[in-house]
Amino acid sequence: MFRTSGIHHITAFVDDAQKNVDFYAGVLGLRLVKKTINFDAPDVYHLYYGNEQGAPGTIITFFPQQNARRGVIGSGQTGVTVYAVPVGSLSFWKERLASFDIPYENKTRFGESYIRFFDKGGLLLELVEREGGQPSQWTFNGVTPEHAIKGFGGAVLYSHVPEKTMDVLVSKLGLEQVNEENGLIRLRASGDLGQIIDIQSTGIQRGIGGAGTVHHIAWRAKDYTEHEQIQQELEQTGYHPTPVIDRQYFNAVYFREPGGILFEIATDPPGFARDEPQESMGEKLMLPEWYEPQREQIEQLLPPIQVREWKGESKS
């Protein structure tokens, strides 16, 4: 049976590219590990942020499109993206968010304390202290490894039919139900990052895709063989997955689970250093070979962005 170790990446829509860079690099201290394009719409960036290596389980990705329609977070979506930070560092993050005038709420779930806030594009995020997961070694704009985001803590899924979503996670992806409280079901995957998944089982309005919402959540497959096997199993059991798609930095298979959420299975290999040195990842616009002849035209269509030591809107 296939058992994912947890989240591989999460991909969302956003409107303003530079605000996106300022928030995820400047405020959250993540590394921009890959600057490329939406392979299906080459006039749109595809930006990837994670730890120093861009390791699976740390990567959030965005399609920024200026003046994009704002979405509505709701059922049929990954509702909350949860990041794990080192134990003892929530107070640092509360002070940091306040210094950037970012409002936050204190939340408690299954005995854990979270801080919940929105990014500048309307995406709902949380930070939680966790023991597991390797510390990030990336240092930027005042965020050091002592407090840096390690990767995903998990996610809260908003489903049209929570019991069917839970069945897919358990029977197809190998998660285990571990708790239930206050309309939430908690499941756990086998890894130490991105492994805690909560399903909201009641009271969620229907979501509408657009800026500020998650497009899909991707689950890890350790290698190509395992990836092909789960694709075949999903096909045989009526989930209508896509064929295996080469996304340059991982292979992908997509399917929509019965609760309306778009799931992807993504391979850990080959990773983000396949087409540029790890030490300079994210600095240059990387294009797949079939788009290289159009590089000049594509670069003219994309807005300029920069990773900068951002101090906030009133001080930048």
UniProtKB/TrEMBL annotation:
Gene3D superfamilies: 2,3-Dihydroxybiphenyl 1,2-Dioxygenase, domain 1 (3.10.180.10). Residues 6-130, 151-268 form the VOC domain. Keywords: Dioxygenase, Oxidoreductase. SUPFAM superfamilies: Glyoxalase/Bleomycin resistance protein/Dihydroxybiphenyl dioxygenase. The keyword RNA-binding does not apply. Pfam families: Glyoxalase. It comes from the Bacteria. InterPro entries: Extradiol_RC_dioxygenase, Glyas_Bleomycin-R_OHBP_Dase, Glyas_Fos-R_dOase_dom, VOC_core. This is Ring-cleaving dioxygenase MhqO. GO terms for molecular function: dioxygenase activity. The lineage of its organism: Bacteria, Bacillati, Bacillota, Bacilli, Bacillales. PROSITE patterns: VOC.
